[in-house]
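2024-03-11 09:14:02 INFO worker-7 job=invfold-0412 stage=load source=structure_tokens
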């Protein structure tokens, strides 16, 4: 990894080309100036020999296999590249370049499989089997992030978020027995599935695909459900499918957050609230991490999305005591009301 490289080392590894420029030395010889990165950081690199030839084999954004020697230049560690080859995309593990969920993803996947088995309604069960019978979908579902930056924005984020919602749904069902468990569990598994096509994460950074920007994960998810229904010969007007599609369409809770309809069934209301809860708590976890180690409670930076500061607990293992409460932060930022939307994080 980049953060382990020290001058004097021979380096052989996979890196993402973050920048690439063909330049000329004062003596007139061509060389390539590169910035190489992985999830631990980035490092400057130079190709001095065969610069023109080697530069033709890759572009900015490519994943490359590099052989190099680490040297010290102007007090900084730099790579002198001897060999550079395009990496085999299939063999590249995105977790090498992007942060990964810290939850137990195997357990999360087991939770999802158990939920699928638990669905007894024939139509919904058939639908889940049809969709998750596709190995490519399973692979993408187990690796995709749930967002570009706002919540669960890391490899395995979608799986973590889905398993969390299944756990939360089970808690709610213990108290509210009349809710339709098959419908809620199916919604947990399918509501954000469109993210596997909405986002790209095979190479850094996490980005929206063209399809993702144009259709959004709700639109893509509905398309996936409809396609599976056609394959299964399920009538488009089937009331189970209608109820499920309503939850998928309404799960963002408001039209300005991308839901074309508002939640209008009990299950849709509950589902939106659980989805909102998990997304917001994950967002706050990210804020706590950004705060780093602190022995006392403290304020986050101003969060425009929520129009507030957050008062966050100590982040050292030994729980701090709430004392010497910090004075209230500066005035609230100006500007009109900004509605919090964790679901539309592609705005500049
Ligand atoms: Fe969503
Ligand atoms: Fe969600």
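2024-03-11 09:14:09 INFO worker-7 stage=emit residues=348
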């Amino acid at each position: 990894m980049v953060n382990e490289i020290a001058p004097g080392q021979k380096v052989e590894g996979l890196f993402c080309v973050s920048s690439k420029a063909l330049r000329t030395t004062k003596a007139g010889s061509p060389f390539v100036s590169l910035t190489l990165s992985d999830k631990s950081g980035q490092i400057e690199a130079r190709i001095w020999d065969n610069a023109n030839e080697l530069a033709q084999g890759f572009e900015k954004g490519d994943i490359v296999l590099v052989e190099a020697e680490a040297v010290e230049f102007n007090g900084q560690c730099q790579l002198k590249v001897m060999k550079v080859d395009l990496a085999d995309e299939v063999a590249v593990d995105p977790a090498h370049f992007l942060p990964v969920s810290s939850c137990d993803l195997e357990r999360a996947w087991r939770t999802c499989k158990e939920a699928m088995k638990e669905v007894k309604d024939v139509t919904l069960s058939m639908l889940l089997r049809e969709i998750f019978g596709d190995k490519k979908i399973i692979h993408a579902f187990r690796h995709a992030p749930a967002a570009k930056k706002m919540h669960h924005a890391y490899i395995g984020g979608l799986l973590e978020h889905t398993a969390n919602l299944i756990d939360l749904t089970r808690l709610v069902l213990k108290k509210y027995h009349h809710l339709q468990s098959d419908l809620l569990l199916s919604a947990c598994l399918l509501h954000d599935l469109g993210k596997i096509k909405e986002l790209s994460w095979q190479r850094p950074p996490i980005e929206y695909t063209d399809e993702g920007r144009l259709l959004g994960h709700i639109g893509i998810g509905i398309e996936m459900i409809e396609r599976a229904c056609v394959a299964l010969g399920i009538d488009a007007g089937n009331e189970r499918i209608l109820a499920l599609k309503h939850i998928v369409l309404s799960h963002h809770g408001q039209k300005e957050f991308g839901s074309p309809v508002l939640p209008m069934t009990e299950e849709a209301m509950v589902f939106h609230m659980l989805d909102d809860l998990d997304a917001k708590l994950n967002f706050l976890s990210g804020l706590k991490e950004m705060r780093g180690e602190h022995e006392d409670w403290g304020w986050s930076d101003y969060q425009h999305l929520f129009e507030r500061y957050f008062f966050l607990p100590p982040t050292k293992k030994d729980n701090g005591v709430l004392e010497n409460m910090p004075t209230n932060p500066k005035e609230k930022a100006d500007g009109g009301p900004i509605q919090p939307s964790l679901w539309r994080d592609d705005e500049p």
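2024-03-11 09:14:09 INFO worker-7 stage=report msg="The mean pLDDT is 89."
2024-03-11 09:14:10 INFO worker-7 job finished
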